[in-house]
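Here is the promised in-class demo. Please do not try to memorize the tokens; focus on the logic of going from shape to residues.
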């Protein structure tokens, strides 16, 4: 590599990544939970966090505190609850969540990529499908990082998985994940044409040990 190319690599601007939290989280709590990842990839990635639009029942803090728990859609519309394992014909709330992400993109974008965790990862996969279909032209994510992702069990969402997606994707699976078992995350892999996979031995969290740095960097470097 020439000195000019080296200088270009050093001066490359950090990637901007929109982050979608999991069910019962919010943007602020997810930011805290990904502190190790932000430290691991500092100077290479700027993470921007957004709240899901749906406040869960009983999630309003006391004494005027900010809401604690939010969700992207409900697998049981009547009860306004969600379970990744639940099979349903119809859900509720997804349209409002897509609108919330579009608003974040228009307000804070553009973004190079999207990172989702658990229900947020499932939504990120749906957004990639909407982007590639041309139905949401404001979305222009160049890649997706899906941590503990899965396919929605709602029949209403089957169209999101009808064709392999070209969006480059990194799928992060926890072998000891008791919330989203690794097999559920593996079931999402065929939705993408050339999925990259990072497997870790832990549970339901975003892994960010030093041993994982190279996996993340190898995936992200092509977009910098």
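The designed amino acids, position by position:
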């Amino acid at each position: 590599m020439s000195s000019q190319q080296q200088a270009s690599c050093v001066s490359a601007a950090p990637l901007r990544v929109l982050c979608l939290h999991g069910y019962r989280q919010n943007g602020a709590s997810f930011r805290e939970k990904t502190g190790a990842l932000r430290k691991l990839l500092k100077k290479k990635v700027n993470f921007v966090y957004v709240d899901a639009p749906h406040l869960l029942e009983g999630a309003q803090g006391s004494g005027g505190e900010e809401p604690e728990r939010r969700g992207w859609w409900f697998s049981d519309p009547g009860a306004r609850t969600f379970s990744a394992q639940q099979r349903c014909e119809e859900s509720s709330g997804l349209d409002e969540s897509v609108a919330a992400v579009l608003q974040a993109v228009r307000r804070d974008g553009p973004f190079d990529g999207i990172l989702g965790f658990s229900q947020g990862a499932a939504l990120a996969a749906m957004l990639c499908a909407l982007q590639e279909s041309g139905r949401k032209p404001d979305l222009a994510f160049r890649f997706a990082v899906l941590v503990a992702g899965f396919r929605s069990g709602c029949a209403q969402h089957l169209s999101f998985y009808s064709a392999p997606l070209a969006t480059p994707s990194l799928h992060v699976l926890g072998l000891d994940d008791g919330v989203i078992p690794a097999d559920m995350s593996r079931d999402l892999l065929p939705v993408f044409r050339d999925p990259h996979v990072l497997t870790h031995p832990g549970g339901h969290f975003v892994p960010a040990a030093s041993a994982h740095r190279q996996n993340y960097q190898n995936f992200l470097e092509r977009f910098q």
